[in-house]
Amino acid sequence: MEILTGNELTSGGTVYLDNKGLWIQDLQAARIFGAEDVAARDAALAATRDTGRIISLEIEEVTLDQGLIVPKRLRERIRATGPTAPLTLNGAIFDRQKLGEDGHVSI
């Protein structure tokens, strides 16, 4: 099983392709591609590359654990949940980057 992930260009936020073809920040709403979905996965990658709004596109292997999507690579698990240590600036903790006001990027 695989998902598509990347970074939204303007915010830098980690995003995942959902079942509607939208790029969202919720890993648990990501579209899961099976072995039979290779053509659809590749078409979504090509369409996304054409927009130029999502960078660092990757195909990530995942498993399902009690109905939850779990990336196989530690790197992707960290990207999905944010930094492993709090980010601070002048002593104030700040949140990870988010998508723009529209909340999604369509392909």
Tell how many strands the DSSP assignment holds: 8
Strand residues, percent = 25-35%
Alpha-carbon Rg, integer: 14 Å
- Mean pLDDT across all residues, rounded? 85
The share of residues in helices is: 10-25%
**Shape label:** globular
Count of helical stretches: 2
- Classify the secondary structure makeup into a structural class: alpha+beta
Termini Cα gap: 22 Å
Element-level helix/strand string: EEEHEEHEEE
Low-confidence stretches: none
Largest sheet: 6 strands, antiparallel
Side by side, the strands of the main sheet go 5-4-1-2-3-8
Secondary structure layout:
Elements lengths: L1 E7 L5 E4 L4 E3 L13 H14 L2 E12 L2 E4 L2 H8 L6 E2 L2 E2 L11 E2 L1
Antiparallel strand pairs: 1-2, 1-4, 2-3, 3-8, 4-5, 6-7
Give a quick precis of the structure.
Helices cover 21% and strands 34% of the residues. It is α+β, with helices and mostly antiparallel strands.
Task: Give a structural overview.
The chain has 107 residues and is of the alpha+beta class. 21% of the residues lie in helices and 34% in strands. The chain is built from two helices and eight strands, in the order βββαββαβββ. The protein has helices at 38-51, 74-81; strands at residues 2-8, 14-17, 22-24, 54-65, 68-71, 88-89, 92-93, 105-106. The strands form two sheets. Strands 5-4-1-2-3-8 form a six-stranded antiparallel sheet. A two-stranded antiparallel sheet has the order 6-7. The two termini are 22 Å apart. The relative contact order is 0.26. The mean pLDDT is 85.
